[in-house]
Amino acid sequence: YLLAVAATGCFGAGLLVALADAGQDNSSSGSDEAVSAGNSRKQKVVILGTGWGGVSFLKNLDSSKYDVRVVSPRNYFVFTPLLPSVTSGTVEARSITEPIRRIIRKKDVKFHEAECTKIDAANKKVVCRDSSDVKCVGKEEFELEYDYLVVAVGATSNTFGTKGVEEYCHFLKEIEDAEKIRGRIVDCFETASLPHLSDEDRRKLLSFVIVGGGPTGVEYAAELHDLIHEDLTGLYPELQKIVKITVVQSGDHILNTFDGRISEYAEKKFAREGIDVKIGSRVLGVSDESITFKSKATGNLVEMPYGMIVWSTDEWLRVKNAEGVYALGDCATIEQRKIAEDIAYLFKLADKNGDGTLSVSEFVDTMNNVRVRYPQIDLYMERQHMKGVVGLLNDAIKKEKDLKLDLDHFSEAICKVDSQMKSTPATAQVAAQQGEYLARSFNHLATEDPDEGPVRIRGGGRHRCQPFLYRHLGQFAPLGGETTAAELPGDWVSIGRSTQWLWYSVYASKQVSWRTRALVIFDWTKRFVFGRDSSRM
Ligand code: FAD
Q1: Rounded distance from Cα 155 to ligand 1 centre (Å)
Q2: Residue 72: enclosing H or E segment and its boundaries?
Q3: In angstroms, what is the span from residue 317 Cα to ligand 1's centroid?
Q4: Cα–ligand 1 centroid distance for 74 (angstroms)
Q5: Of the residues 204, 212, 236, 515, which has the maximum number of CB atoms within 10 A of its CB?
Q6: What is the pLDDT of residue 419?
Q7: Is residue 60 situated within a structural domain?
């Protein structure tokens, strides 16, 4: 649903986040010097994750400058925007995956198929475990040292603690999930075709529920509808009338992060096609037989038998409060407030006398340390009500005098800026931009000339790295039946078949390799000519 379609100057505020231990004194400035030109030992960079963030970082990093290792339990990259198409067989699973070893084959990078189980920030080590089926007994665990750790481990779906969700619902995050869903849909149809079942049994088996009316839930519902009406009803004609698709959405509209015109169009289209959208409904629990939800408007409880439920709600942050590491992608979408508090705390730590006073050098050092962890500090300093603080700082730096910085006032100002900043969404577009930005910053740090003079805060001084600016390039919402809605920069909305062709071309162009591009186009063509394959493997 979200993809780069046109470059714009728009930017939001979030960015790669250094999930640092605020209580630890910053040691990364020392490391920064060590990566400077002339240092013989290559700095060790460990990347956790082979998703959008990790791969974008990897592709853009100059791996000749660092000793780079990638750790992930998944030895391939998945083009997640096409995962819903795998559930219906529109594209094949292997067409949207690229082996990580192909991505790194021309780079000086090592890959380890394992999951990180612990970050030992104090000793700059990660503990990893081989979680694959084939392992060397007694030697499953190993450690890797790092100078820089890039955490891009993604996020897991948020079940909001709802009873029964983990046990009975399908999630749509990984390739295996999509393949399981594909098999389950066909299994529901095959079982519903058995001769000895009652109509009630058949209705239950062919009741497909999707929880979550966001872009992924809506796209999956549209794919399911297309699969059933374009392919399965011809194969199971007697079941056509009893199939039911229901989308349960807690908000007042589906696609509520999109332009209102798109939500309205999608709701009307779904209503016409018989997809039942239950807006304002909160799921209370799921059992092996039924799902129970409550309408916010009427207070009525609905218990609905189901054949399959796909849970596609907001994502849950997995690595909150990890220490001493850079995080990017979905796992970096931590509360903006926490960042502000960390920044304020780092300044407080620099006040050795505890009298609210910093020397010029203390301030500049702290600023540089903070910038390594939180590059958005430069954006904060540009905000209107930081002007007074920045003026005072630049004045003090010019006159080389001690600062009389009221740290409480400073913290308050920083937190106020932060609450005004828009948080970045958890999307592939954001993760890829963050990965690219972080790689460019690392490439820059590796070639930095230490004799270029002191690093200063804004206003005349030189900067280690430019702050990250997120460029929102537009978003797509495929609605099924060869119709897609697109929201493009400049308040431009386009819905229809021509937008579907734009979607095809953008998604084909965004593939990570020519191999996957060719496979995806081949799958689309195959579907047009022969329809989808309904065998259950
Ligand atoms: P991921 O891409 O999820 O990658 C996480 C990586 O970390 C994986 O390789 C995983 O194996 C690895 N990992 C996990 N745990 C560990 C560990 N302990 N140690 C080491 N490695 C670990 N966004 C869009 O912009 N447009 C779309 O159309 C779109 N459609 C989507 C459709 C679906 C079905 C889904 C699920 C998501 C979609 N998204 C879309 C969102 C997008 O996929 C995510 O925002 C993006 O994948 C985030 O990238 P990431 O690198 O943070 O995490």
Answers
A1: 7
A2: strand 66-72
A3: 12
A4: 11
A5: 212
A6: 55
A7: no
Flag whether pLDDT at 318 surpasses 80. no
β-pairing verdict for 43-48 and 148-151: parallel
For the packed helices 428-447 and 52-60, what is the interaxial angle rounded to 10 degrees? Answer: 30
Task: Decide: helix, strand or coil at residue 173.
Answer: coil
Burial class of residue 354 (count of CB atoms within 10 Å of its CB; 0-12, 13-18, 19+): exposed
Interface predicted TM-score (ipTM) of this complex, two decimals = 0.98
Q: Say which residues have a Cβ less than 8 Å from residue 139's Cβ, sequence separation at least 6.
A: none
CB 252 within 8 A of CB 263: no
Whether 173 is in the pocket of ligand 1, judged by its Cβ within 6 Å, is yes
Tell me the C-alpha distance between 430 and 115, whole Å.
23
Distance 98 CA to ligand 1 centre (A): 14
Tell whether ligand 1 has an atom less than 6 A from the beta carbon of residue 58: no
For the Cβ of 434 lying below 6 angstroms from any atom of ligand 1, the answer is: no
Q: Whole-angstrom Cα distance, residue 171 to residue 185?
A: 14
CB 370 within 8 A of CB 377: yes
What pLDDT is recorded for position 105?
A: 92
- Residue 177 confidence (pLDDT) above 50: yes
Residue 292, in any domain of the structure: yes
Sign (positive/negative) of CA torsion 405, 411, 414, 416? Answer: negative
In a domain, 112, yes or no: no
Q: Which of 474, 426, 314 is nearest to 52 (CA)?
A: 426
Tally of domains within the chain = 1
Q: Are 124 and 145 in contact (CB under 8 A)?
A: yes
Domain assignment of residue 271, given as a range: 165-313+485-530
Q: What is the pLDDT of residues 108-117, one digit of tens each?
A: 999 999 999 9
Beta bridge partners of 487: 475, 493
So what's the pLDDT on residue 331?
67
Answer whether 48 contacts ligand 1 (Cβ < 6 A): yes
CATH number at residue 184: 3.50.50.100
Residue where the block lists tokens 């219906």: 88
Give the ligand 1 atom nearest the CA of 429: 25
At residue 300's C-alpha, the angle toward residues 295 and 301, to 5°, is 90
Residue with CA nearest ligand 1 atom 11:
74
Parallel/antiparallel/unpaired status of strands 109-113 and 66-72 = parallel
Mean pLDDT of 341-367: 78
Nearest-angstrom CA–CA distance, 486 and 499? 7
Q: 4-52, pLDDT tens digit by residue?
A: 222 222 222 223 333 333 333 333 333 333 444 445 688 999 999 999 9
Q: How many residues does the chain have?
A: 537
Query: Does 5 reside within a domain?
Result: no
- Angstrom distance (rounded) from CA 92 to CA 178: 10
